[in-house]
Structure formats: C-alpha cells, structure tokens
Amino acid sequence: FGCDRSKNLVNICGEKNFQAFVCDALSVPIRSGSCDACISIAVIHHFSTAERRLATIRELARLLRPGGTALIYVWAMEQEYKNQKSKYLKEKNGSKDKEEEINTGMAKRPLSDYMTDSSSQNSASCDRRLNDSKDEGCDAKPAADSRLPVHTNRTSFHSQDLLVPWHLKGGTKKKGESVDTEVFPAGSKELQELSPVFHRYYHVFCEGELEAACRSLDCVRVQKSYYDQGNWCVVLEKL
Questions:
Q1: Domain locations in the chain?
Q2: How does residue 173 score in pLDDT terms, banded at 50, 70 and 90?
Q3: For residues 201 and 48, is the Cβ–Cβ distance under 8 A?
Q4: CA 147/CA 58 separation, integer angstroms
Q5: Cβ contacts of residue 196 below 8 Å, gap of 6+?
Q6: Model confidence pLDDT, tens digit, residues 175-231
Q7: DSSP secondary structure string, 179-204?
Q8: Cα 231 from Cα 96, distance rounded (Å)
Q9: pTM to 2 decimals?
C-alpha cells in the first residue's frame, strides 16, 4: 500500500484500485515493526530542515520489522558525476517525448513519476554540515539572505535549498476545453494565466549527505549507497 500528503494523488490511486491513504511522512499511522519493506522516492528532499529530514528517515525505520529494508531516493546536487551528465542535464532542450527511467532494483518506473513535471527542475548548493566536508563538484555557496533562488530548468544546481518551478498544465481552462497556447506570445500575461507557474521547495543532497544522516541512527545500518541518474540512493536494514 502507499501513502501521500496529496489527497488528489491518493484519489487517483483509488481509481486504479490501488491501496493508498493520506498521511504525513513525519507521522505515518502504521504500527511499529509491521512492514517488510518501505520505499521513499522523492519525498525527503521536500523537508526544509536537517532535523525534519532525519525525523522522516527515523519514522521510515520505525515502520520496519527487524531485518526489514528501506529504499530512499533523493535528488542530487551532482547532476554531473564521474564525468557523466545525468539525463536531467542531457534533456536540456526540454524534450517531453522521452521517458527517463530509474531502475531501483525493485521496480522500474518513468522518472517523470518522481518529478514535479517533465520540465520541472531542481538545484543545489553545498552547505553540508558534515565533518568531512570536502566533496568534489559540491563547492557552490548557500544564498546570502533568506530568499530562496528559483532554479532554471535543465541546468546545473547552484543552491542546495531552492524553489523549483511547477508548471500547471492547462491552467484555468474548463474541463474538456482545449486551448491553443500558440496564439499567445511567450511570457505574455495571457499565457501565464493559462499555464500558471507555482514553486515547490527542494533541498537537494550532496554526496554522502543522505548516507551520513542514515548512519546517525542506531536502529538501522546502511546496506548500500549509490548514485543513480541525478539521485542519491540508500538501502537501509532495520536492526
């Protein structure tokens, strides 16, 4: 079964006869030690403090039985890793025809399922708060004030805490009504009203950051930590 903070997404699951319910990742209404496995994909990077991100991992561990495993995916600061660009950067032209995939070893799904939309992006800077804080490709500086930068789609990341554009497709048009956006100039007020842009908060992770957070919990051990197409990933085992 699945859970999500969004009632509308949970309703879609119900329409497809999947078991899902609405809840907060910081307080999942499932008794402790009752799950063989848990998967957290593209969730933890939405929490705005290190304390809340750690609390989310701790809650995930609480659900697991001893010996149970959890898979965690978060977006990575390093979109160019070991001299290889992620598909995220390679799709700079914004092609919406290709389905980017993440192979988690358990399931294979379009990357777009994990992202806000196929044109939404994220960015990052490396204020790591780790003792051994010298990582390649992670030398960007945090914002000097309280305002968060808005990321430019399909570009490298420059801030670890940022806002990612969410393009609401179809905008305010009525159900069943088609809209030809080509009649409006790009960036025009009319086009913005038809396809409004919202912003979502992201904290994208630097190399070692997710693993270090997991290792700080004495109730789990890290089985595996790896990089997968612009994501940092960890497999945990409940002790």
A1: 1-30, 32-86+149-168+195-238
A2: very low
A3: yes
A4: 29
A5: 168, 171, 172
A6: 444 444 344 444 555 555 667 888 999 999 999 999 999 999 999 999 999 999 999
A7: --GGGS-TT-HHHHHHS-EEEEEEEP
A8: 20
A9: 0.71
Nearest Cα to Cα of residue 161 among 228, 100, 206? 206
CA angle 155, 111, 49 (to 5 degrees): 65
Lookup: tokens for 21:
């319910």
* DSSP character at residue 24: B
pLDDT tens sequence across 113-155: 333 333 333 333 333 333 333 344 455 455 455 689 999 988 9
Assign domain 32-86+149-168+195-238 one CATH number from 3.40.190.10, 2.10.25.10, 3.40.50.150, 3.40.50.720.
3.40.50.150
Q: Which of 38, 40, 45, 98 is nearest to 63 (CA)?
A: 38
